Amino acid sequence: MNRRPKILIVDDRPENLVALETVLRDLDVELVKAYSGNEALRATLHHDFALALLDIQMPEMDGYELAGILREEEKTAKLPFIFISAVYTDNLNIFKGYERGAFSFITKPFQPEILINKVKFFINIHKQEAALSDLNEELKQKNEDLEQSNNDLEAFTYSVSHDLRAPLRAVHSYAMIMREDHEKELNAECLRLLGNITRNAERMARLIESLLEFSRLGKLGITAGIVDVNILIQEALEDINATVQKVPEFRIQKDMPRAVGDRDLLKQVFVNLLSNAVKYSGKKEAPVVEVGARLDGSEVIYHVRDNGSGFDMQYMNKLFGVFSRLHRDTEYEGIGIGLAIVQRIVTRSGGRVWAEGALDQGATFYIALPAAGV
C-alpha cells in the first residue's frame, strides 16, 4: 500500500513553521502544522504520524511536556521525535530530551542538510515498518483464506466419501451375488472380471474409510492425558498380528517414557507406523521391526525402525502427504494416507514427526511428543 508519510511540525512562531516547510518541501511527505502543544495533541487524534518535529520553547506547554504526554498515549507511544531548540543544549537538556523518547536533537540555527538527512532516516524506517505491516496483514489474510479452503475441502471430502459408500456397497454386493449364484454358468473370463470388480470395490471402500478418518481428525478435539506408550504398542501389535501373514521379529524397548497426548489417537499413530514397518519389511528373509524411545529435554522421541525397502531421502518430504506414495501398488499395496494421518495426529498433539531411510536398507520413523511429568 502506497501511503504518504505524515510529519507533525510544532512551533508557536509561524515564521519557524514556514522555514521548516521550505526546508522539507522536496520530500515526499505531508506536513501537518501545529502552533501549540494543545493543537499538536488534537492533530494526533486525526492523523497517524511517522515523525514529529518539536520546538522546545513554547508557552503553556513546552516540547518536553508535549513529548511526555505523547509518550503516555498508546497511539503515539512509539512516535519518534526530533527536538529543535535555540536554547544552549547542555548535557542536562539533551538527557532530558532522550528521557522523553526523543531520537534526535537539533539546535537553531541549523544546516538544512542535517535536518533533511535526519528526517529521511526516520521516514525510511517508517516506510519499512509500514511495508512489513502490510506484508503481515497480507500473510494473515492468505492464512485465513487457506484455512477456509482447507475446511471447505475437508467438508467436501467427508461429504463425497460418505455419499460414495452406499453405491459402492451395492456394486460389491451385486458382484458377490453374481459369483455365488451363477458361478457354474459363467466362463473363466467372466469370473476373472467379477474378481476384478470385487477387489477394486474393496480397495475403494478402504480408500473411502481412510478419507473419512482423515477428515474426522480435523473435527475431533484432543483429550490430552498421560499415556503409557508401552501398553499402546502392545495393543497395536495385537491388532496387527491378527491381520498379517508373515510376522516379523519385534524388538520392543522396555519401560519407555510416558508421553502426554490423546490415548486413542496415539494408538492409531503406532498402529499406522507398525503396520507400515511390517508391510515394507515383509519381503525380507528375516524381517525385523524395532521400537524404542529416549528422553530429550521436555520431549520423548519414539522411533519405529524396520529393515525393509527403505526410501531415498530426497523424497522424505513427500512421505507425509495425502496420497503420496514412493512405491507402486504392484510392489506394496496401500492407499497413501496412513502417514498423513500420523503427521496430523502428532502435530495436533503438540509434537513433531520425521523419517530417515535409505533404499533397500530400511526406514526409521520418529515422533516427538511432550514428556509426562517434565
Radius of gyration: 35 Å
The low-pLDDT segments are none
CATH architecture of the largest domain: 2-Layer Sandwich
Cα separation of the termini: 47 Å
Q: Please give the largest β-sheet.
A: 5 strands, parallel
- CATH class category label of the largest domain: Alpha Beta
Which strands sit side by side, in order, in the main sheet? 2-1-3-4-5
Summarize the topology:
Layout: E1 6-10, H1 14-24, E2 30-34, H2 37-46, E3 51-55, H3 63-72, E4 81-85, H4 91-99, E5 102-107, H5 112-182, H6 188-217, E6 225-227, H7 229-241, E7 249-252, E8 259-261, H8 263-281, E9 288-296, E10 299-306, H9 338-348, E11 352-357, E12 363-370
Parallel strand pairs: 1-2, 1-3, 3-4, 4-5, 7-9
Antiparallel strand pairs: 6-8, 9-10, 10-12, 11-12
What does this 3D model show about the protein?
The chain is an alpha/beta fold and 374 residues long. The protein folds into 3 domains: 105 residues, Response regulator (Rossmann fold, 3-Layer(aba) Sandwich); 81 residues, Helix Hairpins (Orthogonal Bundle); 146 residues, Heat Shock Protein 90, CATH 3.30.565. 49% of the residues lie in helices and 18% in strands. It has 9 helices and 12 strands. A 5-stranded parallel sheet has the order 2-1-3-4-5, with helices on both faces. Strands 7-9-10-12-11 form a 5-stranded mixed sheet, covered by helices on one side. The protein has a two-stranded antiparallel sheet with strand order 6-8. Helix 5 packs antiparallel against helix 6 and helix 7 packs across helix 8. The longest helix is centred in the middle third of the chain and has 71 residues. The radius of gyration is 35 Å and the shape is elongated. The two termini are 47 Å apart.
